[in-house]
Amino acid sequence: MSLIRLGSFAHAIDSLTQLLNYEPGNTKALYLRGKCFMVSGKYQKAIDDLTAAKELKPSSYEIIDRYLEQARLMLLNKISSKPDEIAQNTTKYHKNSLS
After folding, report:
1. Does the CA dihedral 46-47-52-56 come out positive or negative?
2. Residues with Cβ < 8 Å from 11, sequence gap 6 or more?
3. What CA–CA distances, in Å, run from 67 to 53, 54, 79, 92?
4. Per residue in 74-93, pLDDT tens?
5. What is the rounded CA–CA span in Å between residue 2 and residue 28?
6. What's the rounded Cα separation, in Å, for the pair 41 and 31?
7. How far apart are alpha carbons 4 and 29 in whole angstroms?
8. CB 71 within 8 A of CB 38
9. Which of 65, 67, 79, 92 lies 20 to 30 Å from 73 when distance is taken between CA atoms?
10. What is the pTM of this model?
11. Pick the CATH number of 2-98 from 1.25.40.10, 3.90.230.10, 3.90.950.20, 3.30.450.20
């Protein structure tokens, strides 16, 4: 898909979503949209699409599993970094409100 090669992931996601509205079982579209979601930082959506693609086409599990595992790790990293960000923002807020 040329939109992906151009780095236009939001447009690629829109196009793939339109395709999936007509062909919900299109494994390649689910796989590609999952990769686009992952690059866009939408890890849960990536996991959902990649899991659906894996269920529809188990013979491609190795390739899909590689991206699925990567998306899960990135989601965990994103979640685990949130408490630090919240604490930092809270500290900044309290310092600013005391000034």
Report:
1. positive
2. 3
3. 11, 11, 18, 37
4. 888 887 776 555 444 433 33
5. 14
6. 15
7. 12
8. yes
9. 92
10. 0.74
11. 1.25.40.10
What burial class does residue 3 get, using C-beta atoms within 10 Å of its C-beta: 0-12 exposed, 13-18 middle, 19+ buried?
Answer: middle
State both tokens at 78: 């994103």
CB 33, CB 16: distance < 8 Å: yes
Q: Any residues with CB less than 8 A from the CB of 44 and at least 6 apart, and which?
A: 75
Count other C-beta atoms under 10 Å from residue 60's C-beta.
Answer: 14
User: What sections of 40-98 are H helices per DSSP?
Assistant: 43-56, 61-98
Q: Which residues contact 52 (CB under 8 A, 6 or more apart)?
A: 30
Report pLDDT digits (tens) over 13-60. Answer: 999 999 999 999 999 999 999 999 999 999 999 999 999 999 998 887
Amino acid identity of residue 18, one-letter, is Q
